[in-house]
Structures are given as C-alpha cells and as structure tokens.
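User: Batch of two.

Assistant: Item 1 of 2:
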Amino acid sequence: MTTRARMNFEGYQHPMTYYDAYAEELVRRYEALEFEEVHADILDAVPNVASNVLDVGAGSGRDAAALARRGHRVVAVEPSEAMRREGRAIHGTGSFDWIDDQLPRLDEVYRLNESFDLILVSAVWMHVAPEDRDLAMQRLQGLLAPGGRLVITTRTVEFSGERTMYAVEPERMVQRALDHDLDVERQQTSSDLLGRSDVSWSSLVFRRPDRGVAALPTLRNVIVNDSKSSTYKLGLLRALCRVAAGASGLVRRRDDGFCDVPLGLVALYWAKSYWQPMSQGLEQQAYSGQDSQFQEELDRATNTLSNYDLRVGKKFDGDSAQALHKLLRSIRATIRTGPSKHTTYAGTKDPIFRYKSDAFSGGLVPSELGEIELNPEYLRRFGALRIPTDIYESLERNWVWIEPTVVDEWANLMQRYESGDRRDEAYRNALKWRAGDRRDTQQVSNIVTRLLEQETDLSGVWTGEAIADSDKIEIDHCIPYSLWGNNSLWNLLPSTKAANRKKRHRIPSRELLSGSRERIESWWERAFVDSPNRRRFSIEATASLPGVDVDTDEPELDPIYDALVRQVDRMKRDQQVETWDGLSG
C-alpha cells in the first residue's frame, strides 16, 4: 500500500469507502500476485474436481478467475462497486458471477438457494466487527455443502484506534467454528508476501461434517422400509423431488440447517402426482373403501381442470379457481396430518418434515377464492414444509435417481392394496409423469411469426444468423425438454434449424451462453417483456430458476440471464449432461 493510502486509512470508517477510493491502486497490487502464490498454504483444500465455489470479498477477482480456470463454478462476492468494476475490466464477465453482497449476512448469496463445496474468505475477516462474527460464521456454515470446506485467511495483528479492521484471535475463530458444527482441519500462520514486517497472516480450514451422506439412507428407509398404510409418504417424497427438479427457485434456504418449501407448491406437485392414479380409481390406502381426505376435491377438480393446467404462473377464475383452491387446501390438510407428521427418522418418533404456518409472510388462506394465480405469493400463503438441508440437497442433486425408486415402491403398494388382477404395468403407467408440461412451442412460434410480420429483425440466438422466414427458424429449449421437461417462456429461444439439430439433447456451454447473451436478452425483451406475456415470463423465471425474484411489472433481464447460467451449471453438475459449444462442436 502506498504512503498516501497508509496515511489516509484512519480516515475511512467504513471499509467500502476505502476500497472504492483506492480501487485502481489496490487492484494493481492484488493482480501482481498469483493465486497459487498467495494461497500456497491451502491449495490442497481446493477441490480437484469441478465444484461450486464462493469467494467472499473477491476484490479484483484474481482468486475467482484462477478458480474458474481450474474448472470450478465460482460466485464472487464483492461489496465495493469500484472493485467490481475494475475486476470486470480485467477478468470479464463470462467465467464467473459477480454479486454485490457482504458479511455478516450474505443475503444476496442466500437468495441463490445454492450450497458450496468451497468458501474462500481471504483478507476479509478482520473487517467483520467482533459483534458480527458469530452471525457471519453461522451464515457461512449454512452455505456449505456437506463435506464442504471453509477457508479463512486473515491478518492477525492488533490494531489501535477506530479503523476499518479489528483484531483477530485465531483461537477464538476456531472455537466459533466448533460452536457452529464445523470441524477444524488446519490452522497455520505465515509472513506477509508484500514484505510488511508488522503484518502476519493466519490460514484456517474448516469442514462441514458430511452428514449429507446419511440423507440417502434416511430417504431409502422412508421409501423402502418404513411401514405404510397409504401411499402418502411416497406422494410427499415425489412432490418434493419434483419441486427440487423444477421449482427450486421458490425454496428458501435457512442458516440453521433447514430449508422452507412453500406448502402450496408441494400441494400443487402432490396433485400432479395423484391426478392419474386416482382418476383411474387405483387404491391408495391399505384398507379398501377408506376415504382419502382430498379424494372428493380431486374428483371435483377433474370436472373443470386438466392435469396440464397445474403449472406455476397459470391463472384461474370461476368454478376452476374454486375447485383448485379447495383441492390445494385439502392436500395441505392431508400432508399436515399424515406424511409430514408420520415420516420419521429410523427407530424414532422424530419427524423429518415439519409444517410451519409463519415461515412466509403470506397471510391466511381463505376457504374460498373466486380467482387465483399460481404465483409465488399465493403458494407461500399455505405456509411451509421445513426440511433438513441435507435431505433437500440430496433430493435436489439426486432426484433423477431417487424418483424412480419412489415410483417403483408406489406401484408395488397400489398393487398390494388392490390385490386385483390388473397387470403390473397398469400401475406404473398411471404414475408416469404425464402431469408435467407437455412439450409445446406453438405459442412462441406464433410470437416469432407475429414479429416477422411486423418486419422485425430476428436472428438465431446461437449463431446470430438473421432469419427472415418463419419456415427457417425452430424454437429451441435452451435446457433440452428431454432433460427437464420445462416449457417456461425464458427457456424457449429462436434458433436456426441447423443449430437446433446440431445441439440435440445437449446444454449450451458457459462460453456459448456468454457469446449469445445479448441476443438472448434481446429476444426476451421483444417476445415477452414488451408483450402481454410479461407476467407469466416473470413468474416462471422466479419459480424455476435459482436465486432470482423477478418483478412482474418491470423484469430485469440481467439477473434472469445469470440465473439461467447457474441452472445450466446445476444440470451439468447433477446429471453430468454433455455441453455444446456451438456449430463447431
């Protein structure tokens, strides 16, 4: 740091004032050092496979860029606007994500509804006020994936006067980490790389115990071993699998080891799961003739609704609204008194899932409504199902493997309950996910035709090739329908026929998305934001994309694009999906 910076440091009572004032000079100094040099003590704590990484206090983005080059998916948190601006100028915007956030709360990071395999907090802890450090450690622990590491490097010298830095005691940090259920892997000290004799550093590596490993046996016990007088426990798990697969944007991650899932959303996917088997009269309980609490309401709903109507963002009025609202209320009551109460850990009476009426500030659910929209506010009014984070993370990452086991056991139960002569495949056919979105691009095709009739220039998002004839364009699911079954408007993009056929069932690479960003956002603007579809587009993005809450009146497209990139990263991580780099690949 220069003499001028040293002299003036005392005058900056808030860290951001200092970093904004000296951003250009600080960035030059940071970038003069290599990541491997600065973090030589903790390099072996960095995962050697592609992982989710959070860099808190990213500064110039030096470390975030180095981690991204190693193949990691990186979120760089930096509260100084000037530092972010300088960092973007050096490292660009395509290889990792920038977020304006800071300790102790990291609220914006929590809105991503993501967990991280590595969290790096480099040269930041001394800026956290002592009274905020307990909360900061709690929030960091809550963002760690099972088995994930938290690495903190910090200055440890004492400071006098009212500065933006505070004394750090490594032993107190260790105790604070232990208090928050973190294991201590390493603690060591080192000298200052810039040669300052009055500065020393401490590196600490903490690890969240991998109790997530226990989540799969817990789920298997519920699916296979647990006694069942009905299919309701399986119905709840399947609904949660579908939430984790397609609507995790509405799930709220907490810092106490739990996630809150809107119970209205769970009820919606529960209705989707039971629509076919109940419509076909397949027995769902061990005792024939025993009434299901929601059977009567589902029967009424089938008179006015199709199972394809049950999707987030759709509006209803009149008899359809009444029927659906009563059905969801009945399902909520069934879940509260049945599977959420009786689904317990093996050998105990401790429930895995708990109902929380006040988890969201949505208010009470009236007994009748003449008009409803399946938007986040409505679905949250039903309260929440509070789920242990390790259970939800297991569902989120492994739903594609867990759901088939649930379906197999469900079919076996129905066959056992009926003791009839139906063929085995009849039960499994009834449980096929027909209640999901049908593959449908017609509405968006019509939008393309309308824009072309208005002599609006259109181009394929992947190639930039201008298209003047609707016969030469195809509507591409950015994340292939075969992988996700998602017809949300944001996921439907105009493509040339050649590009669409070359892409097939692959997801676009980060590089391709970055190069296509302007065209994607321009398409969203013209096709959806500047049209009557604005509200549907916004609600669907909020529900199905991670960490974005879109204003239905004035949707901002940059956050939606960033969330799309995160969802593509998730698909690649969780399902090992092949990526596509463009027409050359």
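Item 2 of 2:
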Amino acid sequence: MDKIKLIIDGKEIIADKGTTILSAAKDNGIEIPTLCHSDRVALYGACGLCTVEAEGIPKLLRACSAKASDGMVIHTDSERVKKSRKIALELLMSDHTGDCVGPCSLNCPAGTDCQGYVKLISQGNFHEAVALIKEKLPLPASIGRVCPHPCENACRRQMVEDSISIAYLKAFAADEDMKENTFVPEVAPDSGKKVAVIGGGPAGLTVSYFLRTKGHSVTIFDAMPYMGGMLRYGIPEYRLPKKIVEAEVQQIANLGVEMKNNVKIGKDISFETLRKEYDAVVVAIGAWSSLSMRCEGENLNGVVGGIDFLREVNEGKRPDIGNRVAIVGGGNTAMDACRTARRLGAEEVYVIYRRTRDEMPAEKIEIDEAEEEGVTFKFLTNPAEFIGEDGKVTSVKLQVMELGEPDSSGRRSPVPVEGKFETLPIDTAIMAIGQKVNTSGFEEIELNKKGIISANERTFRTSLEGVFAIGDATNRGASIAIEAIGEAEKASKVIDAYLFGMDIPYRKPFVSEKEVTPEMLKDKEKASRAEMPVMSAEKRVKTFDEIALGFTKEQAIAEASRCLECGCHDYHDCKLIKYANWYDIKPERFAGMKNIFPKETKLVSIERDQSKCILCGLCVRICDEVAKKGILGLVGRGFTTTIKPEFDNDDVISFCKDCHKCADACPTGALKIIEK
C-alpha cells in the first residue's frame, strides 16, 4: 500500500494512504479523544471530540473521518481545538446525570474509595480493602477509630434507615490485615532526591509514606519522643491504643522512611540547615498550643489547656486534678478531656458549653458516652471569671447565656443573660476551646493574619523556595486528622513533580454528581446498622483500655453488604470523565432541563441507565454490525431521544444474555452487566 508522510504535534510519521487522521495518530501513540469511534464499526462522528487543526485548512477537522494526506501538518492540542472539545464535553456533561463516585468518597477529605473498600470487605477481601484504602490513607487502623467520619454523614443509606459504619469497617479491615500478610506498597526505584519532613503527625507521616513510595529518600524530624503527633499525644488510649499507632508508624518506617525523634527545630538543628541539606522540606508541625479565652483568672494554677492536659496523660503521667473538674468547650477534644478526667478519678466532671446540646460540634456518640460515664453538661453557660485562693483555682463564675440570632456558621449565637450568673466550685479547669500553631524556629516563613503558616492551597508552597507546608499549621488552622491526611497525599504529588523540575499544581478532579431523594430509595430493603459493641460505662471509667470491642468478621461482612453502591461501576474506565478532566470544563454554562430516566434493570443481563447515555450510538452500531442482531435502536426524536431494545423472540433474548458487547463498548457507564 502507498505511504504518506505527515506531521502530528511536531512528530513526523508515516501512514498508509487513505487512513484517517485518528488512525494515523493512534498507530503512532498519539491519543485523540473520541467517545463514538470504534474500529469495529462504521464511522459515525457523533461526539465531536476528535477535532484537530490542520495547517492551511480554515475549519477544524473531525479526525475520525478526515483522511490524512501527504505533507499534512496536524495540531491535536491547539487553543482552537481545546476550546472546541471543551464545549463538546460541556454540552455532553450538561445532560449526563450520574454519580462518578459515591457521596461517601466525595465527602471524605482524603478522597478514599469508601464504596470500593466497603465492597471488598463485604466479599471478605480484607487485605485487598486495605490495599485500596492505602492508595489515599496510610493509617487506616488509627483513623478508622477516631475519624468523625464525614463520609457517613453523606451516606445515602441513611435515607433508608442508617448510614454504613464506614469508619469502623476501615479499622476492622486494617486490624485483620495487621494480623498476617500485612499489605506493603510497592516502592519505586531510588530517585536520588532527599526530602525532610518536619512533624511526625498524620500529615507528616502521610506525605512521607507517599513520597517514599515514589522513590524519594525521606527523613521525618519530630520534637516528641515518639512519632504519631496528635494521634499519639492528643487522643486518649481508650479511643486509640498507642500500640495501633506504633504499628502503623512502623509500617511506614519499614518502607525506608528514616525517623528522628526528640529533634526541636531551632534548637537541635536549624531550619536553614535542613533547607541546605535536602532537595525539599515539608513543614507539618501541627497545632500543639491551646487557645486562651482571655478570661480573668485564666492564669491561676489548675487552669490548663485541653491539648496540654491530654498530652500529659498520653505521656504516661497522672496529673493531680482533684475531685471537681470543669471542661470548657463543646468539641471532641472537650469530650476526650472530660472522659479522661473521669478515668483519672475525678468524681464531679462538668462540661461548660455556651450553646445547647444540639449545637455541640462533638460527635453524638462521644456526648452520649460521656453522659453514661457520669459527666454533667452545663449548657448555655460560659466562664466569666476563674476565682482562686493562694494562686490556685477554686471556682468558676459562669455567665448564663441564651441563644440569639444565627452567626456566620448558621448556628444561633449565644448572648449573655444580663445579671444572671452561677458559681461552680472546682479543683481544675480544662480549656478545650481550640488549638493554635507554635511557629518558633520557622520565623523565615511568611505567616497569614492569623499567625498561621501561609501556603498556596494548590501548590502547598510557602514563601520560601523548596519549602512546602501542610496540615493544621497552615492557612485555616487546626482541623480533623483526615483533612491533614488528604492534604498531605495531594501535596506528595506536587512535591514529587517539583523534585523533577516540574510545577504541577493540584487540581480538584471533575466528577458528575446526582441528586437523590428518599423517594428514589423507597424500594430498598431495610437492614439496620451494626452496633459496635462497647465496654460498659461502669468498667470503662476505671480503665484506659480500648472501649470499642470490635466487629466480628460476620458482622463486618454483613454491615458492608448494606452499601447501596452509589458510585458508577465504570468510573475508572469511563472515557467521558477521563476526557472531562483533560479540560477545565464548566457544564453549568449550559444548565437547563435534564433528561432524568429511571434505570432499566430487566433487560436480560444488562442494566441500562439512560440518564448516563450521551447518544453516541456505539451500542446500537455494535449490536447491528458486530453482534449482527440489531436489537437496539433509537426511539423518539430530538432532546427526548433514548435507546431501547426490542426482544421479539426467545432466541434473541438467549443471545443477548451472554453477548455483552454493547456494555463492553459503552464509553460512559450507561450499560452495566448484571451479575447473576
């Protein structure tokens, strides 16, 4: 056959005369996006994605149908081409309705594939579940125990009865994995690059894990005697045993991450020295200082910070707090502090909170279990003054509050009831109202107005070249551990690129999301959430042993089996979402009426979700030209057109049951093979 020469994206190639531009590019390793093309069927040209620009030709060409000619100079990624493809994708996505991933994963700050690992657990594949979790999160046994699980808050199963116990399932799978055959990720060959990570908490451990798997030499420097950060020093043993944290830290060390404890930056080693000796430095120092209320008497002995109190206990000390203890605050740190105080022997423990129980940010289970353990909650009160004798706190004067108008967070603001106070005798007051960053030793780094390290939210870069910052020490300040972990995983990719001289900022991936109502799930069979067995309140206040007793294998499998599998079965192979993420698309520009169709689940062995269909016609042509059956066809005209099957005899039904060629060809996940 005659040959021709042409240039595609600066690369000279030789192709057969009469071939299309799409085929010529594909044969030479150049990908031109297309959704409706297949070498097995005749040309169709429906999706409009394969446009290219040819020098000397004013209009864009469709690569699937335009023939390549000798001497052609083709550009597959010019600005005109990108604009054309972007518009085509936006139009397609504007009428594409489906969940790329489940709302659980979307609501997880680390982006873990909750649906994926829950399904693996339901199949008894615990090792594989942990492997999937560790694609985003290297500390599943620890985080599964302490995470406030925003994933569960978004779980659609609660529209049926109760959300899936996603966090406990994560911990269960990790515990099973650690018993034997522990998952170990593959580590890339040595890159020759060195990274210093300052801080061995959730963020520092996570970024070290992922940078090490990418082949870089990583050293963690931490000021405390042991790694783990707030997981080890800020969370009580009864919620997260130290042996669990130690085991997961050791797994990271086993990958070749060097860990140096008792190293204070600015005292034991200078920040500038690290910058000189390493190719990149990551600051992940957390927020280890308790916030002050600026309340009169706060400097009295016996008035301590919540984080300081918990750290002292987690270091193995048993501070003398007396019999009457008041904790100020309504978050999980306050719950940890009050429940720890009970375990230290305090007989009267009060939680002082300026709003009502309904406004408390702490998890409901933490509040309930604290009450079971004998903690008294004094809602709508706030310290006005700490009173003492001989420099030691003896009581707290409480201002009685009432709820006024909502504040910026939507919660009703507490306002003082004029002239109304009460006094509470106490031996110790614990201030659990928040945390702040101690930037001593990092004076060179630019801080924001809040005194927190300023880091670009897409590049994680600080004001210093080669210095990155992540976690509680940056921008918005202290948050939950999974937030820091999610940021660290994203930063690892950016830092990896930086080490090879590239600047690739993090970009949030585009996904399709679907709005679901309880009415849509009314046919789902109800199956109540598995309750985590816990130690009785009478026993647990006398010990720091872990109170959650864990699921059995049978309980975990049954609980995981409740998952509705909201996310798309074809997400990882979906061409539509792949190409949507090549471009910064904004389908809302073409917002309007959407075709919303019910799923067809009785098509022999195929589930058809017409709401995901983009009418590329590939399934129709595959059925007609490849399967030679012509079962599928377009029904209707214009905007409401759909694709329907016609089963006119038993032979056709029998053939369709085992064929599946249409589902294999579908580029959007609109067709799903039903597992019988």
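The chain has a mean pLDDT of 94.
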